[in-house]
Amino acid sequence: MAGGQLSAVVRHCQIAIIGGGPAGCCAALTLRRWLPELSVLLVTRPSPVGTARVGETLTPGVLPLLQFLQLQAGFEAQQYLQAGGTASAWGRDEALHRPYLFTGMGPGWQIDRSGFDGWLLAQAQAADTNVLQAQQVTVAENQAPFTLHLDGQPFTADFLIDTTGRSARIARACGAEVQRHDTLVAQARWFQIPDAPQHASEGALVASVPDGWWYTAALPEGRGVLMLMTDTAVLPPSPTEREALWQRSLATAPSVAQRVQAWRATGEQQTRPAGSQQLDCVAGPGWVAAGDAAMAFDPLASLGIGFAISTGIEAARVAAASLDGDTAPAAAYTHAVQQVGVDYRSRLAGYYQMERRWETPFWRARQDGFSPPAQW
Questions:
Q1: Which segments of the chain have a pLDDT < 50?
Q2: Which of 110, 268, 276, 314 is the most exposed place for a label (fewest CB within 10 A)?
């Protein structure tokens, strides 16, 4: 069923994973590697080949997760750009480099996110995961056994893993609610970099400006990405005004302007939500959420891909245990995600408190009223 149509015979599985990003693929790989006797379906959305996606930085902490999934050799064969660290111009115009050397875990990587996601999906398929493409997935019966409609075709599953990203549409259909904590938005543009290095990257660069902050990184195959993070309340409605904001913000970030001055725009652009959000409940009777569906992070934290992979692995364990009537892993997973959230919000508040140069709406919203909650 890899990438094909729903079989007239196979209309039921024990575990259905909805969403084919890193969290979904890693959940599927965990189940196929360690519990191959379980019937698993991974439902993905059709995506045009080569579609640009954001999320390009892998920190060194991701490697042990890939080792657990038996993917280290295959990952290294992708020849992504090794990055020795990151740099930031935060609270000052000059950029300071922060090497990964002192973590003791080796280098990080700058990846082609679309290619990385496609590679993970191919690994899941190679592990004999049943993969089905469906444009629309709805939950017709929100209790186990669940009834799903995949592009209108009925399908049943004993357990659901929601890896649908920020929409968390499966968890919401099961009664969970998304709690959004800010309205950060990312404007992303992609570029070609003349004479780009082929095997190493100087790493990502972030720089604060009056109306938000910049993120930029060189990517494999001579490409680069530049993103302006601002707030929906700050982002103008018209394309002309948005372009003016882009150019004005670039002029106030000399470290970014210098890095990208020779870059050539490809015309690829996206505007997408980038703020902090979480589900009020990440697991319930017969379901669990992972990746951005469970909790989505401000890109400043560089947590998204690692969290997606680790929670995909853990969601697979929750699912398998739940099929045997054991709810303890679900409770432990819920507690662990809550603790990640508490730590994340505290750290994020500290990052934003470090920038005190401007009294603008963007920064006031993230300093005066941006304190970590006692409990999520």
A1: 1-9, 101-104, 371-376
A2: 268
